[in-house]
């Protein structure tokens, strides 16, 4: 099964927020001749998007013609402060999150999920500089500081920027096994130490309790 991965783009998106997961999903399985993910970019319109520092990207699709999505990647960046008030962006996120198997937010992309109403009652994280803003935008969410990746089941969130690579590798491990994810990380020469079952893990698995300040049982949270 080849899963379709839609990576949302918008002006002033953080480059590594989208490029990191794009690379992870894009290269996974290629050396074994397997096409596990079909990765593409999508923006509100077909015209070029100017990412942070004016990197120009031509999106593969617009909101009007984006295919059905299995995994929706919502990156962050300074542009989220504008786009979280953009009805067309929020409608797109709601629509494709609704049909997707998994939703992955990176960094302040969590603000878009919050404004789209997708974090109500969930556990969440984001870039350390946006934690307070996320709690305002998602008042019923349990916003967790000092964590790298939070897995609510369908909705997975990462901390800032480079943490999106860890979250994408985590999803690869969840969908295709730890060996496949480790192969991808090795090919990328990325020191992936954040999966709780990895031999060289530098994290611990946090589970636990009914306390409102703690993750619920079965929630996967990786911490530095």
UniProtKB/TrEMBL annotation:
GO biological process, one term: regulation of DNA-templated transcription
Top-level taxon of the source organism: Bacteria
SUPFAM superfamilies, per database record: Class I glutamine amidotransferase-like
The protein's name: DJ-1/PfpI family protein
InterPro entries (UniProt xref): Class_I_gatase-like, DJ-1/PfpI, INH-QAR
Domain DJ-1/PfpI positions: 3-173
């Amino acid at each position: 099964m080849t899963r379709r991965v839609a990576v949302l783009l918008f002006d002033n998106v953080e480059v590594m927020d989208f490029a990191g997961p794009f690379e992870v999903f894009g290269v996974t399985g290629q050396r074994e001749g397997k096409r596990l993910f079909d990765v593409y970019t999508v923006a509100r319109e077909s015209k070029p998007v100017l990412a942070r520092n004016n990197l120009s990207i031509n999106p593969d699709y617009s909101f009007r013609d984006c295919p059905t999505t299995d995994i929706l990647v919502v990156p962050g960046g300074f542009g989220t402060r504008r786009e979280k008030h953009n009805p067309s962006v929020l409608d797109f996120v709601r629509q494709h999150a609704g049909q997707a198997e998994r939703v992955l937010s990176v960094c302040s992309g969590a603000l878009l999920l919050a404004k789209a109403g997708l974090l109500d009652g969930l556990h969440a994280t984001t870039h350390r500089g946006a934690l307070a803003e996320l709690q305002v935008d998602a008042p019923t969410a349990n916003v967790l500081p000092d964590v790298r990746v939070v897995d609510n089941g369908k909705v997975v969130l990462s901390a800032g920027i480079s943490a999106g690579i860890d979250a994408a590798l985590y999803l690869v491990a969840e969908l295709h096994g730890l060996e496949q994810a480790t192969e991808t990380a090795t090919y990328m020469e990325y020191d992936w130490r954040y999966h709780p079952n990895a031999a060289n893990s530098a994290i611990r698995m946090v589970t636990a309790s009914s306390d409102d300040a703690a993750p619920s049982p079965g929630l996967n949270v990786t911490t530095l």
